[in-house]
C-alpha cells in the first residue's frame, strides 16, 4: 500500500541546506565527548577508563540505531524518523548539560548517539527528492559533512569547556540541535508515496546483539586483556551472531539490509573502504591532538593546550570540504576508479609525514589539512558508489550498513590506538614518541591497503566502459581480488 503524496515536496536548495545542517549537528554532537573526558573524570569523580564510556555509549547506541533508522527511511515516514531522532538527541544534550551525576551524563550521551543514524536517513531523503545530479552532489557533501562535524566538535567543546566548564558544550549543542529540529520539522517532506514494508525485527535483534558484543569488547579489551575469556567469549559470540544474521537476511523476504545488493563490486568497495578508512581515522585524529599536548619536557611534545590541540582539526575540516568540491571535477577528468585510491594515498602521506615531522605546530597544521583532503576524497566518493548501484527502495538500508561499518571501524581504531599507546607507556606519565609513530604508521598501512584493494575491486571505470556492468565480467573481476559472489545476481 502506498502512503503519502508529493504535494509537499520542498524547494531543492532549502531541503539540501536542511539536510546538511541536520548531518552537521549530528556529527558535532557525536564528537562533543572526546575532548571532555579528562574534565568529566575530574568533575564527576570517576576514573578515566570509566569516563571513556561517554564515547562508547554514544557509539554503541549510534551503531544500534543506524540500521534500524536506515530501514525505516526506506519507507514512507522519513520526516518522523528525523524529527524523532533529533528530539531524542536534543533531550540527551539537555540531560548532559544539567547533569551533576555521571550516570545521568552517560544516559544523555547514549541518547545523543542516535544522531549517528541520521546520515543514511538524510542521504535517502536527498536521493528521493532531489534531481539526480543534485542528489549525487548532495550525498557526497553529506558524507564529508559528517567528517567536518567531528573536526569542528573537538575545538568547540574544548574551548567552551576550558572557559565555561564542560556543561557549556552540551548547552551549545542543545541550542543548535533545537534549530536543526525546527528546520527539519518544517522542511523535510511528510509521508512519501512509497509502499509501507514489514519491519525485520528478527534481523534487527540479531545485528543489535552482535554489534553490542563487538563494541563493548573493543572498548574494554585493553583493560580486560585482549586474550582474556571476558574478551574472547563476547567476540566469538559477536562473530557467530553476525554470521547467523547474514544467513537470515539472505533468506527473509523483506530484510533489514539488502545484503545481495551489498555484493555489487562498487558497493562492496565502498563498504570495505569505509571500514578501513574509519579505523585509520581514529589512528590519526587522537594522535595528532594528543601529541602536540605532550609536555615539552618529554623531548618530543609541543606543550600545547587542549584548545590548540582541538583547533588542529580545523584544517582537516577545511581540507575535507575543499576535496568534496573538487571530487566531481576529479571524477570527470580521471574517472571514478582512482578517486578512493587517490584519497587513501593522500591520507597515508599525512600520517607518515606527521609520524616523521612533528617538531613544530605548523607541521601539525599542514599534515592535518592534507589528511582532511584525503578523507574528503574518499568519503565524498563512497556513498555515491552505493547510491548509484542499489535499488532506490534499498538506499536507506544500504547506506545504514555502510554507516554501521564506519561505526565499527571507529570503535576498532579507537581500541587499537589505546592498545598501542598503552604498550609504549612504561613507568612514565606519557607514552614514548614511538607509540604515536607506530599508531600513525599502522594507519598509513591501512590507507595504502585501501588504495590497492579499492582500485582492484572496483573494476574498470564504468563511466568510460558501461559494458563492464555485466554480471559475468563483474564476478570475474571480483574473483581476481578474492571476492567470489554467486552468479546470476545483478542489482
Present the secondary structure layout.
Layout lengths: L1 E2 L8 H19 L6 H8 L3 H4 L1 H21 L4 H21 L3 H11 L5 H12 L2 H33 L1 H22 L6 E2 L5 H24 L4 H23 L7 H4 L2 H17 L3 H9 L12 H6 L2 H21 L4 H18 L4 H27 L7 H29 L9 H26 L12 H10 L11
Antiparallel strand pairs: 1-2
Helix pairs in contact: 1-7, 1-8, 1-9, 4-6, 4-7, 4-10, 4-19, 5-6, 5-7, 5-9, 7-8, 7-19, 8-9, 8-16, 8-18, 10-11, 10-19, 13-18, 13-19, 13-20, 16-18, 17-18, 17-20, 19-20
At the first level of CATH, the class of the largest domain is: Mainly Alpha
Largest sheet: 2 strands, antiparallel
Order of helices and strands: EHHHHHHHHHEHHHHHHHHHHHH
First-last Cα distance: 24 Å
Portion of residues in beta strands equals: under 5%
Give, in spatial order, the strands making up the sheet with the most strands.
Answer: 1-2
CATH architecture of the largest domain: Up-down Bundle
Stretches where pLDDT is under 50 for at least 5 consecutive residues are 1-7, 463-491
How would you sum up this structure in a few lines?
The protein is an all-alpha fold. Helices cover 74% and strands 1% of the residues. The chain has a two-stranded antiparallel sheet with strand order 1-2.
Please characterize this protein's 3D structure.
There is one protein chain. The chain is mainly α. It has three domains: 188 residues, Growth Hormone, Chain: A (Up-down Bundle); 56 residues; 229 residues, MFS general substrate transporter like domains (Growth Hormone, Chain: A). Helix content is 74%, strand content 1%. The chain is built from 21 helices and two strands. It has a two-stranded antiparallel ribbon. It starts with a strand and ends in an 11-residue tail after the last helix. The relative contact order is 0.13.
